[in-house]
């Protein structure tokens, strides 16, 4: 399948597929929630992909990283909302979660770097570097290994919304 | 939360004989200490090996970045500390992200190479996948279906179930099941991309719903445990050199209380009249020919033992004979002609058979066709059906 076509009006229409909301407190009470949510949602949205099983594995793999990012938020109040919508071969994840103002700034910078030229190189450096992968590197990896495009959108209150487009259907053989 | 939460969902092993470290399952730790013993095992393996260390991630279904970084660092450090050492990472063609993610390592350290493992194909597969063979496969399924549609309900088939057809080939069985029994979901897996493409095209053209085709390796499937009420695997255990490994996987994905259904042949029991002797000789040779390639097309009657040894209970076995009297005898003849082409063609050539053998070998197929088309003739192809229940 080809890339997403942007019509003259700009944004293509993404059809909503599934949404899960929960209190961030509940979410961060157990690490395993990242795995549960990513696996469950991956399975639900992959059923009508051309290879549901492999799509689900790939989707869960990418989505879990995002959830692990949200898990590390330093703001303990508010809601986590995960929404998946679809346009052709692309699945869009919108992940909204509470965060501190400085974290929001950090995400905005991280996401703007992802689009940069040296994204791949910076990712490779991090793999051979000493530090465990930071949240920035995790976002970078989505772009490098899953061809994801990322952006940050405004959200109400002390929250941030990460919008990640994953063209996974085109990634398989 | 389930009690499963307390169990680690991954396994790391080191096989000293093959200098192979393998890690499998779902590796999504919150903190790296959760990986302590596996990391120690890898370090220890690196300390022991000479030459090459194989890192097998074929059965790794998930690994988060934190864990990937932890393992990568050890490999990268080892490359720097010991330039004499090479690493070969073996990924799976089925799990899409592994080759990409681990592939990066070779860009960082030239002593790391990444190989994508592909299950070996059985002889004749190339030929069978060519477009020309598809009508024969369909005819074959059409002939067995006349029997199996009546047999299947005795082995757990009923409307509304969730089922899997493993080694589904071109998907024609899945389509017939869908129409006749309306299960709520069918997952159909095969390791042939061209067969799956064909199956998907049929599904689109005939607007069939409820079948999910997936590319996979039957000996290590991405499918979750205990998902299916019925798992079918037709004419395929017999093509693997270690059918017990496949059965183990079929067992794993079957729900407790669900059933695994297998069909297999005993080729030496194909028969016909007239010209019984020549036919018998040839099909005996078919069994030997497959044996040469480590495939057991005599497996049918051994199904009961295989199922018992795999841990199934309430095992049911029956046989049916596809004959020239079911439907059009020409269908039967066409199937035999196609077998002759592959068996006395590519396969015999690959074994290095001489012209004299091949001529006699072909003759038996000709005689089987003769029997099938003879107005007073009878020709048969026996199939063994067996199923077992996964204990609760
Ligand atoms: C003899 S055919 C049977 C096909 C089908 N079940 C039928 O009855 O027509 C064997 C099938 O097993 C598939 N196969 C071979 N190796 C496999 C593997 N490792 N994993 C999954 N399928 C495999 C082949 O692609 C082929 O479609």
Distance between the termini of chain B: 21 Å
CATH class of chain A: Alpha Beta
Taking the alpha carbons of the first and last residues of chain A, their distance comes to: 11 Å
Query: By helix and strand content of chain A, what is the structural category?
Result: alpha+beta
- Tell me the number of structural domains of chain A: 1
> What count of helical segments of chain B does DSSP give?
12
How many DSSP E strands of chain A?
5
Low-confidence stretches of chain B: none
Please state the structural category of chain B: alpha/beta
SSE arrangement of chain B, N to C: EEHEEHEHEHHEHEHEEHEEHHEHHE
Topology-level CATH name of the largest domain in chain B: Rossmann fold
Strand content of chain A: 15-25%
Mean pLDDT of chain B: 93
CATH class of the largest domain in chain B: Alpha Beta
Q: Could you say which overall geometry of chain A the principal axes of the C-alpha atoms support?
A: globular
Strand content of chain B: 15-25%
> Please, how many domains of chain B?
2
Q: Architecture of the largest domain in chain B in CATH? A: 3-Layer(aba) Sandwich
Strand order of the largest sheet of chain A: 1-2-3-5-4
SSE order of chain A, as H and E?
Answer: EHHHEEHHHEE
Radius of gyration of chain B: 24 Å
Describe this protein's structure.
The complex is a heterodimer of chains A (173) and B (392). By secondary structure, chain A is an alpha+beta fold. Chain A has one domain: 2-Layer Sandwich (Heat Shock Protein 90). Chain A has helices at residues 24-27, 32-46, 52-71, 101-114, 119-128, 135-146, and strands at residues 15-23, 79-87, 90-98, 149-154, 159-166. Chain A has a five-stranded antiparallel sheet with strand order 1-2-3-5-4. Chain A is globular. The model of chain A is unreliable at 1-6 (pLDDT under 50). By secondary structure, chain B is an alpha/beta fold. In chain B, 42% of the residues lie in helices and 25% in strands. Chain B has twelve helices and 14 strands. Chain B has helices spanning 36-48, 65-81, 96-108, 125-129, 134-151, 172-181, 193-205, 243-253, 276-292, 303-309, 329-351, 355-373; strands at residues 10-15, 20-27, 52-56, 60-63, 86-92, 112-117, 162-166, 185-190, 211-215, 228-234, 254-265, 271-273, 313-323, 378-389. In chain B, strands 7, 8, 9, 10, 11, 12, 13 and 14 form an eight-stranded mixed sheet that branches. In chain B, strands 1, 2, 3, 4, 5 and 6 form a six-stranded mixed sheet that branches. The site of S-adenosylmethionine has 19 residues of chain B, from helix 5. S-adenosylmethionine is lined by residues 119, 122, 137, 141, 167-169, 173, 190-192, 195, 217-219, 234-236, 239 of chain B.
């Amino acid at each position: 399948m080809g890339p997403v076509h942007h019509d003259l009006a700009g944004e293509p229409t993404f059809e909503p597929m599934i949404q899960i909301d929960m209190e961030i407190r509940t979410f961060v009470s157990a690490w395993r929630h990242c795995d549960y949510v990513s696996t469950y949602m991956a399975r639900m949205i992959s059923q009508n992909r051309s290879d549901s099983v492999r799509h689900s594995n790939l989707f869960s793999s990418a989505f879990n990283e995002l959830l692990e990012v949200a898990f590390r938020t330093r703001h303990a109040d508010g809601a986590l909302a995960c929404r998946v919508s679809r346009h052709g071969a692309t699945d869009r994840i919108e992940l909204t979660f509470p965060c501190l103002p400085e974290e929001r700034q950090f995400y905005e910078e991280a996401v703007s770097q992802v689009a940069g030229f040296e994204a791949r190189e910076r990712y490779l450096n991090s793999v051979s570097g000493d530090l465990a992968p930071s949240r920035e590197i995790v976002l970078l990896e989505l772009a490098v290994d899953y061809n994801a495009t990322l952006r940050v959108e405004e959200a109400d209150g002390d929250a941030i919304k990460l919008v990640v487009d994953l063209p996974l259907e085109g990634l398989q053989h | 939360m389930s009690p499963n939460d307390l169990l680690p969902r991954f396994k790391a092993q080191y096989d000293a004989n093959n200098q192979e470290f393998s890690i499998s399952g779902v590796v999504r730790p919150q903190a790296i200490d959760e990986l302590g013993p596996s990391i120690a095992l890898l370090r220890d393996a690196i300390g022991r090996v000479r030459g090459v260390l194989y890192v097998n991630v074929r059965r790794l279904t998930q690994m988060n970045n934190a864990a990937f970084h932890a393992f990568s660092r050890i490999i990268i450090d080892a490359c720097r500390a010991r330039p004499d050492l090479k690493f070969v990472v073996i990924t799976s063609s089925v799990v899409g992200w592994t080759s990409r993610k681990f592939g990066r390592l070779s860009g960082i350290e030239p002593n790391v190479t990444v190989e994508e493992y592909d299950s070996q194909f059985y002889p004749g597969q190339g030929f069978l996948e060519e477009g020309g063979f598809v009508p024969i496969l369909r005819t074959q399924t059409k002939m067995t279906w006349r029997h199996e549609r009546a047999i299947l309900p005795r082995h757990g088939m009923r409307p509304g179930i969730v089922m899997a057809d493993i080694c589904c080939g071109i998907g024609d069985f899945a389509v017939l099941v869908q129409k006749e029994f309306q299960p709520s979901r069918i997952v159909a897996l095969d390791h042939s991309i061209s067969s799956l493409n064909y199956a998907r095209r049929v599904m689109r053209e005939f607007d069939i719903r409820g079948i999910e085709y997936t590319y996979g390796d039957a000996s290590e499937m991405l499918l979750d445990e205990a998902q299916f009420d019925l798992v079918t695997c037709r004419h395929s255990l017999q093509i693997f050199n270690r059918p017990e490994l496949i059965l183990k996987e079929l067992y794993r994905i079957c729900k407790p209380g669900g059933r695994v259904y297998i069909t297999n042949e005993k080729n030496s029991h194909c028969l016909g009249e007239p010209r019984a002797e020549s036919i018998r000789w040839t099909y005996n040779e078919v069994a030997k020919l497959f044996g040469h390639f480590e495939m057991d097309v005599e497996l049918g009657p051994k199904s009961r033992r295989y199922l018992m040894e795999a841990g199934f209970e309430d095992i049911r076995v029956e046989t049916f004979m596809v004959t020239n009297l079911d439907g059009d005898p020409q269908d039967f003849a066409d199937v035999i002609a196609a077998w002759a082409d592959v068996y006395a063609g590519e396969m015999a050539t690959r074994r290095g058979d001489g012209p004299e053998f091949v001529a006699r070998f072909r003759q038996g197929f000709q005689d089987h066709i003769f029997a099938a088309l003879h107005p007073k003739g009878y020709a048969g192809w026996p199939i063994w059906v067996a199923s077992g229940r996964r204990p609760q």
